[in-house]
Structure formats: structure tokens, C-alpha cells
Amino acid sequence: MSTDTSAQAPAFPLTRGCPFAPPETATAFREAGAPRRVIIWNGTRPWLITRHDQVQQVLSPGGRFGADVTLPGFPNTSSAQPVVEGGIFFRKDGDEHLPIRRILNPDFTAKRSEALRPRIVELIDHLLDELPAKGRPVDLIEEYALALPTLVICEILGVPSEWRHIIHESSKKVVQLSLPKEEKLAAHRTMLDTLSRTMADKRSDPDDGLLSRLVNTWVDEKGVLGFEQAVGLGVLVIAAGHETTANMIGLGILALLREPEQRAILLSNPKKYQSTATEEMMRYWSMVQTEPRRVCLQDTEIGGVLIKAGEGVICNLPAANRDPDVFAAPEALDLTRVERKHIGFGFGIHQCLGQNLSRVEMQEAWPRLFHRYPALRLAVDESELRFHDDALTYGLEELPVTW
């Protein structure tokens, strides 16, 4: 067992040399086999975990690593994170996490998400019908990849689709890493205030949406939640329910444009390949690029390195999901890959609550787009595409296409 005493550590988030691969430094750390130090915004030096098995070790239940952003030593993304997320259940452990998660689970089960598939298909086809009226080139991020999950989450919450732009603008600011604390907090407050007014209205005008159930059932009837706590859960569903899926839909479109052989496989039999395609895209892109983060609660050895209690840990999913010890030809995109060992949705009890819904959206979004527009192509040179590295989730700023 050893400890890292090196004064040299790269700045985190790490930069990507190639937009279609994990940062080279993360790959080098993984190949070296042991956790390594990085430096974050406040000068602290948490450990970066890059191997698949070691990420699973950190995220597995057992009480050795905590998810609470308010704990000393937690490697927060900014000074705003403990304020914005400190009271949210998924940033808690044990009894503060699971009971609240169980309130939301019924809305995001595999069965419930599958039941929404016909409506998701309707929304997709409506968006595709509208594309020609947008003119060409059209930005598929704004008009499709972002629009679809936002509309879906609006229907689940029971709010008008006109909210789509408020939701996007506010949540986009919250997940940007370098945005000043005041702007992050203001964006978060906008969402809180908007949902607070809406949920108050739903007490006198209830419906079947999630916001209505939260306030009328879990606050007023059962008294399990406080009103502000219920509002916070609504904000969480908004932030988590569209940003990640939108990024994945956009990145998946780009991958299929770049690799016509893989696109042909998917379109040859969408029902057969849409599931494996979704899992492979999650592995290949691993769009959650700066999470999950934890703080060590008791001295733990990982990869021959002693991580001491109170030290921060950051798991790097892009590197872990291309671990050659787990995946054959990990650098290749293979939509026929049947291995389902990726940890793109996280691992353990904190893994993504909305993963079932996200899967259904991705499974339908890609083949229906290319079936409707088989001549779809980039409207700019690939080198002109801009990716947002400065965010919790990786994705495209825009995706201009024509046909």
C-alpha cells in the first residue's frame, strides 16, 4: 500500500485532445492502474478514479464513501454546489437518501417509462414534422435533442410546454462549472420560485402530474415532505430529467452521422438494435464527465493507494467505460455490443433515477430521425463543431444539419 505524495497534479476538469475520446490524462491514469491526484477550483487535491473496477468500488454500498456535498473534504464543483444541492436527497446517504428516492421511484420505473413510449413517439414525430419549417440548416440540439426530453419532463411534471425555455436556460446555468456563484444561485432561485408558485396552484387545481402528487399527497396528505422539500424535488427532476438525455441524443446523432456502417446496422432492424445501441452510446460517450464525486469516510485502499478519511474522490466515467479489461475494442463504437457492463448511469444506490425514461427516449429518437431524414448530414465541417467541456455533462453546443 502506498500514498501519493507528488506535488504535481493536473487541473481538473481535464481537457480533451479529441472530442470523441476521454481526456488523454484520464486514459493515462487508468493505464497506470492506480488513483492519482488532481487539482480542482479551490486548490484542493482530490483523487481521480479511472479504472472500471475501482469506480465500482467507490460507488458500491458499504459506507466508506459519502455523497453528502456538505461534508468536510467533499470535492465540490464550485462554492455554489453545497448551497444548491446540500438539501437534495441524492446528495445524501443512508436514511436521508433512500426514503425520499422511493417517493420518486414509481414515476421512473421501467414499466412506467415503457408505458410512456407511445406518447414519446408522438412527440418525436411532431418535432420531426416541424423541422422543415425551421429552415436549413437547422440546429438539431435546439430543435430536437433538447426539445424532446424537455417536453417529456414537462408532461411528467404537469407543467405547460411553454416552460421548456425557462427550464433549459436555468438548468444550463446551474451545471456550468465556471459560472460565478451568484449567477448559479440566481438561476436556481428562478426554478425554485417558478415551481413554488405552480405547486401552490396545484393545491386548488390538482392533476395527474408529479408536481401535483408531491404537494397534495406527500406534503398535505401524508406529511412526509415539507413544501420547500417537495419544490426541491421538482427542481431536481427538471435538472436531471432533460440535460443529460439531451446531450446524449445530440452526441448519438453525431456518432451516427460519422459512422454510416453503424447507422445502417441500427436502421436495418431498429427493434432489434435500439436497446444495444443505447447502451453502447452510453458507454462510448459517458457524457457525465465530472461526476460522481464522493468523500472518503474511513481509510480505504484502492488500487494499492491509501485514500484517507476526509479526502475527496472523483470518478471519471469516460475513462472507466473504455477500460480494456472490461470491454473488447473499447475505443470502437459497436451498436451490436451485447456487454451491458457500462456505468454511464452511475453505479450503486445513487445511480441515475431517470435512466429508464432516458433509455426509451434515446431508443426512439435516433432511428426515427434517420428514417424520416435518410439524407441527413452535417451543414458545417466537423472541425467547426463546438463541445461544452465546461459543464457537468459533455455535449454539443449546436449541431447544424441539412438534408
Q: What do you see in this structure?
A:
The protein is α+β, with helices and mostly antiparallel strands and 403 residues long. The protein has one domain: Cytochrome p450. Helices cover 47% and strands 7% of the residues. The protein contains 16 helices and ten strands. The strands form three sheets. A five-stranded mixed sheet has the order 1-2-8-5-3. The protein has a three-stranded antiparallel sheet with strand order 4-10-9. A two-stranded antiparallel sheet has the order 6-7. Helix 6 packs across helix 8 and helix 10 crosses helix 11. The longest helix is centred in the middle third of the chain and has 32 residues. The chain is globular, with a radius of gyration of 21 Å. The mean pLDDT is 90.
Features:
16 helices, 47% helix, 5-stranded mixed sheet, 3-stranded antiparallel sheet, single chain, Cytochrome p450, alpha+beta, 403 residues, globular, 7% strand
Give the amount of beta strand, in percent.
5-15%
| The CATH fourth-level homologous superfamily | Cytochrome P450
Largest sheet data: 5 strands, mixed
| Uncertain residue ranges | none
Gross morphology = globular
CATH topology: Cytochrome p450
CATH domain class name:
Mainly Alpha
In which range does the helix fraction lie? 40-55%
The strands making up the biggest β-sheet line up spatially as 1-2-8-5-3
Question: How many H/I helical runs?
Answer: 16
Order of helices and strands: HEEHEHHHHEHHHHHHHHEEEEHHEE
Overall pLDDT score: 90
